[in-house]
Write a structure and sequence with these properties.
108 residues; alpha+beta; 36% helix
Length: 108
């Protein structure tokens, strides 16, 4: 039986590497019916430019395929400092994203 592959995770990590961003920076997590991509901000002041680059890569690769997702910013308590950004997919939408990548269906 063919093993399930996470084509999107592989794609995003390869794109990060191609843009000189550590492929470990976007961290993937599966929780019940949700797939979450965490992007940690490592700057004490301001926002890590790599965070924006990764978010841009996600937009460029997911939006054209018509896949729904949510984005949320997490700030440190009692401050204006950004802790991380998360991009959240419903499990069914993420499965559809991987199916489209598996077969090369780039229409939405």
């Amino acid at each position: 039986m063919k093993q399930n592959h996470d084509y999107y995770q592989n794609l995003l990590k390869r794109l990060c590497k191609a843009h000189n961003i550590s492929p470990r920076k976007p961290r993937f997590e599966n929780i019940e019916d949700v797939v979450i991509i965490h992007v940690k901000n490592h700057l004490k002041e301001g926002v890590d430019l790599e965070c924006f680059k990764i978010l841009n890569l996600i937009y460029q690769t997911v939006v054209p395929l018509g896949i729904k997702f949510n984005q949320q910013l997490y700030l440190y308590p009692n401050g204006d400092r950004l802790d991380r950004v998360t991009v959240t997919f419903n499990k069914n939408d993420y499965v559809l994203l991987n199916k489209k990548l598996a077969v090369g269906d780039i229409s939405n």
